[in-house]
Amino acid sequence: MIRIDNIKLPAGHAEADLKKKIDKLLDMGKSKRGKDSIRYSFRILRQSIDARRKPEIFYVYSVAIDTDSRIEDKLLSNKGKLNVSKYIHKQYELPLGYGDTEIIGRPVIVGSGPAGLFCAYILCQCGYKPIILERGECVDERIKSVDEFWKSGMLKPGSNVQFGEGGAGTFSDGKLNTGVNDKNGRNQYVLDTFVKFGAGREIAYTAKPHIGTDVLVNVVKSMREYIKENGGTFMFDTRFTGFASDTGELKEVYAVYTGNGYYKSDLISEGCIDTDISYTISDNKGEAGYDIRIRTNCLVLAIGHSARDTFKMLKDKGIEMKQKEFAVGLRIQHPQSVINRSQYGREHCDDLPAADYKLTDHTSNGRSVYSFCMCPGGYVVNASSEEGRLAVNGMSYSGRNSTNANSALIVGVDSKDFGSEDVLAGMEFQRRLEERAYRLGNGKVPIQRFGDFRDGVASNKPGKVIPQIKGAYDYADLRELLPDDLNEAIIESIEHFGGIIKDYDMEDALLAGVESRTSSPVRIVRNDELMSSITGIYPCGEGAGYAGGITSAAMDGIKVAEKIIGKYRLPDSNAE
Ligand SMILES: Cc1cc2nc3c(=O)[nH]c(=O)nc-3n(C[C@H](O)[C@H](O)[C@H](O)COP(=O)(O)OP(=O)(O)OC[C@H]3O[C@@H](n4cnc5c(N)ncnc54)[C@H](O)[C@@H]3O)c2cc1C
């Protein structure tokens, strides 16, 4: 096979135009006598946008072509202007060998976010029947709870934008790009797997893949069904509450079923649990729910960055953890047309995706401000998970067609800002900011026009930028939210960004707070076998401090599954 790069087509081109272009390029390989058209198949490897000569915008393609070897050799021998090279397709390979440590019961995975889900997906394909504990609801129920929260403010601390089937990323923009460079093809495997379970095939090759919440919900459901069909068990409304170990080795896992099933039989009939012997469930419902004990020596902690009660429990249980730096800030909204005009040279563009941006500024007070989780054509969302505390984030639907673009503008913080070296000091710092945001907005998302924020006066009505927010909002003076030097740095940066994107510093740009859950405030220490200080416990994904974003969390889930397969032999019942 050969690969041809740098194939340019104007924005708005028809799908067939790419084939026509490749036909022409391959003709160059035809011998003078060759009359018949060349037989070949091609696959898009990459598609990106070139806006350097805006408003003239191009799509740039790289394709893999499978054709007659004489044609390939001819093209490779006299490249001329053609950007052609030999192409060897590299595919992620599932782990082959099994380990030799006996597994007790079944592997248990806490969390059904990307990390937990991909860990379960790999384990299932290799014959391990994981049990997935998820404190939140299954996605259909979760959507109702989140919609109700955004409508009425009624928060379910156990099932919300952070917690529930699919994890934190379910109500997101579903951006899938990651900076993690992986030689084993795990990145592409994650994208191809999302396509296998229903995402658009373009995410496998576009430079900036994104799924959008409306599609991601169905992808998560399809993956769940596949995992169940292949021996996995999902226990929703089931919170991991502890574990028992002996001489540093995991022996048992504890959880509580908080769903509204009344009797054990209900849970069985509801398919929440099956009659497997590897766990017991209390006959009577305790204060928090039904107590569950699971005998196992293999536990994956894919708990996400917001599992604060679980971080506390793990710390108290003596699991080795470290404080971890992260970033906090505010989320800013602009008319999407302002960003399109800057990036594409025109405000309206049906032939192009809503434009995005990535900005960084090192400010005069030494703080650096950067844009994070930019959502073109998206919404600011109330992403809270604790009563009396308010955090925001961003999301969009696959169409990315809201009138506004939004992005977090965040500043790095560390133990100096937390005021303590305690492992959980960062988590408490987040909590304090979120309590302030909750008070400032009277329980709603606090917002302010940039001009007023700069001048330190509260806003009372929007300007040209109409809020696109999921959840109720109220006007406030956001200068009271973050430490002053962060406010100063954000103001200076917005003005600086106004020099890069015209009108970025418009008076009516809308700010909202607080963006506090940018990544985990802790790192759960793990060794080269990806095991924690307790043998058999595997910290995994964003919450454990080893990923940032949907794709890198999924890749970490795959890595942990590989380690489990390499250590434990298949459960007897599966070792046919
Ligand atoms: C609104 C929003 C938008 C985002 N947008 C993007 C984006 O566009 N692109 C991107 O790459 N990233 C985005 N992110 C970040 C991304 O969602 C996370 O990086 C990713 O989901 C991390 O995956 P994870 O599996 O490690 O953890 P999570 O997805 O957080 O999943 C952890 C799961 O564990 C469960 N859990 C926690 N504690 C327990 C317990 N004790 N018992 C049982 N279950 C438990 C939780 O309920 C949760 O479902 C966004 C996040 C949010 C909140």
Q: What would your notes on this structure say?
A:
By secondary structure, the protein is of the alpha+beta class. The protein folds into three domains: 2-86, Alpha-Beta Plaits; 108-321 and 525-574, FAD/NAD(P)-binding domain, CATH 3.50.50; 325-515, no CATH class. Helix content is 27%, strand content 24%. The strands form six sheets. It has a seven-stranded mixed beta sheet with strand order 15-16-19-14-23-20-22. A five-stranded parallel beta sheet has the order 7-6-5-12-25, covered by helices on one side. Strands 2-3-1-4 form a four-stranded antiparallel beta sheet. Strand 5, helix 3 and strand 6 (131-133) form a beta-alpha-beta unit. Helix 3 runs parallel beside helix 6 and helix 5 (186-196) packs across helix 14. It is globular, with a radius of gyration of 26 Å. The relative contact order is 0.15. The model is unreliable at 270-277 (pLDDT under 50). Flavin-adenine dinucleotide is lined by residues 110-116, 133-136, 161-164, 167-169, 171-175, 239-240, 302-304, 307, 310, 373, 381, 383, 393, 395, 541-543, 547-551, 553.
